[in-house]
Amino acid sequence: MNPRLLPALHTQEDLTTLVENRTVYCLDAFELNIFETHQTARRVPLSMGSLVLTTMLRGKKVMHLSGQAAFDYLPGESVIVGEQQVMEIDFPEATPDNPTQCLAVAIPSDTIRHTVDLLNERFPLAEEHTPWHLDANNNTHLTNTPELTGTLERLVHLSQETHAAKDVLAGFTLQELLIRLMQTNARQLIFHNYAQHLTSHRFAQVVQYIKRHFTEQITVDKLSELACMSKATFFRLFKREFGLTPVEYIIRERIAEAKRLLRNPVTTVADVCFRAGFNNTAYFQTIFKKYEGITPGLYKKQYGLG
Questions:
Q1: Where is the HTH araC/xylS-type domain (predicted)?
Q2: What is d(CA 241, CA 161) in angstroms, rounded to the nearest whole number?
């Protein structure tokens, strides 16, 4: 989340407790909570009844969820906690100078059901056997996508506004949040585990091809042929399912490879440009800064292993 958009921290005098101090914003469509912890603690239980999307904003937690091994929970990540599930949380590094801060959005089950039904009726996905769905009973650990982060930032902003239309806007934004969550889940399923779905999901074959050939020239015609779709249908359904276009996905794969190569002390920025699949250094500089916020040269200085 953009540091400028993070909720302000409380002073020690304003806190009612140093462990999971809770600030609540109640809207018609959802309840948004900001939790802060200013001292170390272990196995702190938390349950909110309905499905909850939590997102780490500052600091570090260790999460203990039913049926999963404990894991570190860091900024840039989210956890979906199912209905009636209990989280147990460690705060191994929290101090007054280094507090944790976490966002939690409690989402009513009726809203989830209505949104999923609407999507399946009007905007079906590529495979009939894998419709839109969000499992309200299980827990999921996610790496935030830029699209999910942007939607969360708008929810935080709306929750703190006072104008009359904020509840209407919040309802629409919550539906967008649910869509972004399902798209993020789909990316995690297919982008990272495509080999397990090659015989059951046509986009898994597309992802495999991109991962094997992203340093080469790839056409949407070739990808749509692999998906057994027309070019227009493929482009539309790929973006609907994953929240980004095939071209954007190829660029992100190339950027990831460029970052890996830039950490090698013997590579040059120009060399990385062409090895990662870009054919123009000026374009590479521009697109890298757009996605990463800094130039390739500065990234190399900051993260190079030399």
A1: 204-302
A2: 32
The token duo for 238 is 């790929």
Asked if residue 288 lies in contact with residue 251, where contact means CB atoms within 8 angstroms, the answer is no
- Find the helix packing angle between 231-242 and 202-213, rounded to 10°: 90
Q: Is 75 exposed, middle or buried (0-12, 13-18, 19+ CB in 10 A)?
A: middle
Q: CA-to-CA distance for 166 and 28, rounded, in angstroms? A: 9
Residues of the chain with pLDDT under 70: 1-5, 305-306
pTM (predicted TM-score): 0.87
pLDDT digits 0-9 by tens, 223-275: 999 999 999 999 999 999 999 999 999 999 999 999 999 999 899 999 999 99
d(CA 56, CA 35): 10
Dist. CA 122–CA 119, nearest whole Å:
5
> Counting runs of H as helices and runs of E as strands, what totals does the chain give?
10, 10
